[in-house]
Amino acid sequence: MLNCYKSQIPCRRQRGIKLELPQEAGYLVFAAAANVLSNLTQSVGPLPAGIKDPAASNGVSNLQRCRAAGYLTLAAVLLAGINHREAIVMIDGKKVLFSGMQSTGNLTLGNYLGALKNWVSLSDEYECFYSVVDMHSITVRQDPSELRKRARNLLTLYIAAGLDPQKNCIYYQSHVSGHAELAWILNCFTYIGELNRMTQFKDKAAKHADNINAGLYTYPVLMAADILLYQADVVPVGKDQLQHLEITRDIAQRFNAIYGDIFTIPEPYMGKAGANIRSLQNPEKKMSKSDENANASIYLMDDPDTIIRKFKRAVTDSEASVRYREEQPGIKNLIEIYCACTGKTPEETEKEFDGKGYSDFKPAVGEAVVSVLKPIQDRFYDLSKDKAYIDNIIKENAGKANYYATKTLRKVQKKIGFPERIR
Ligand code: TYM
What we know:
Elements: E1 3-7, E2 16-20, H1 23-32, H2 34-44, H3 62-79, E3 96-101, H4 109-122, E4 127-132, H5 134-137, H6 144-160, E5 169-172, H7 178-187, H8 192-196, H9 199-207, H10 214-229, E6 234-236, H11 242-259, E7 267-269, H12 304-312, H13 329-342, H14 346-352, H15 358-385, H16 387-416
Parallel strand pairs: 3-4, 4-5, 6-7
Antiparallel strand pairs: 1-2
Helix pairs in contact: 1-3, 6-15, 7-10, 7-16, 10-11, 12-15, 13-15
The structure holds ligand 1.
The site of ligand 1 has 25 residues, from strand 3, helix 4 and helix 10.
C-alpha cells in the first residue's frame, strides 16, 4: 500500500525522501500515524488552517487527505530517523510556482494576458503561490481604504479568472511577515550598483519625483524575497519584470555561494503571446494601470461597449494591411492581443484578415477580448457577494503561506548566524 523510496527530486539540488502515497491510502495510513504527527507538528510548527488533525476527524475531504499525505511524508522521514531539516518534501510532488500583482490602480488587459492568464494555465502543473503584493503597493502613496478595497478586489479577481483557491495558495503579502524579514536579510546581500540599474526604479522615480523613498529603491529586493521564500522554481511574469527576475537570481546565487544550497534559483516564464502588451494610444509605451489616458488601456472591468470603442480608436497606421511586423507597431500589438485571446498564431491572423481593412480587424480584436473578459467579470460580481467565502480563503491561505515561508526563513536565519529560538 505504501510505496517508499529514496529519490533525487529533480527540481531541488538536495537529496530528498519521497513517499508515493495512493490518495485512498492516505487517510488510513495517516490516521495510524497520528501519534507521530502530534510530535511532528510540534517540531515543524502548526498545520496550516484547513488541515485537520486526522486523529480528531471522522471524515476528511479529498483535498485534506491529499494535503495530509504531504505531512505523512514528513512523519515517515522522522520515523526513518532522518533529520527533517535536511529532507526535502514536496506536497503532491510538484515544482513550486510563485507570482504576484500589485493592488494599485485597475488591472489592465496587459496584466491579464501577460500574467494572470498564464497563472491559470500553469496552476495544475505546479504547487502555486499567488500573492496580492500590497506591501509593494505602498512604495507609491495610497489611500488606505482604497488600498484595502483594491487588494480584496484583486484577490477576488484571481479566483474569478480561474484560479482554484483550494489548489492554489492565494493570499495577501502583508499577512506573511516572512516577506519583510527575508527582504531585510537579502538587502544585506544586494549592491547599490545593482539597484541603480533597475529601469523600473528610474521610471517610477521620474513619475513620483516628490516621493523617491527607500522602499521604491529596494523594491526588487522585496520581490526577490517573495520568490525565494517559497523556493519557487518558476515565476510567470510579463516582459517588464524580467530585470527583477534577473536580480533575484543574482541575489540567490550570491547567497548560495556563501551559505550552500539554500535557495532554488527561479526561472521566469512568459507565454507565447501577450508578454508585452502595448498602449492602444502609443505603442511605444507598455499598457499600464497608471496611464493618464483612459483610452490607452483596456481595464479588466471595462464593459463590452467601452472595450469595442477603445479598440476602434486604437492608434494604428496608414498601411491598411493586417501584418505582424515591427514597422506597424500598433497593428502588431493588436495582432498580439488577438492571438493571446483566440489562441491563433500571427500567420493565421494575417491570413484571416488578408484583403480586409482595419475597420474589420479592430472590432474583431475587441470582440475577442470581450469574449475572454466578460465571463471573468460575471464571476467576479458573483464572488464579491459572498463575503464569508472570500474571508475564509484569505484566512486559510495566509496560514498555508506562512507555514512555507517560515520554513525557508528559519533555514536562512540559522545559516547566517541568528540565535536559535528556545521553545
Ligand atoms: P505588476 O503589478 O505591475 O504587474 C503584474 C503582472 O502583469 C504583468 N504586466 C504585463 N504583461 C504584459 N503586458 C503588459 N503591458 C503588462 N503590464 C503588466 C507584469 O509583468 C506582472 O507579471 N513587481 C511586480 C509584482 C511582484 C511580483 C513579485 C511578480 C511583486 N513580487 C514576485 C512576480 C514575482 C509588479 O509590479 O507587477
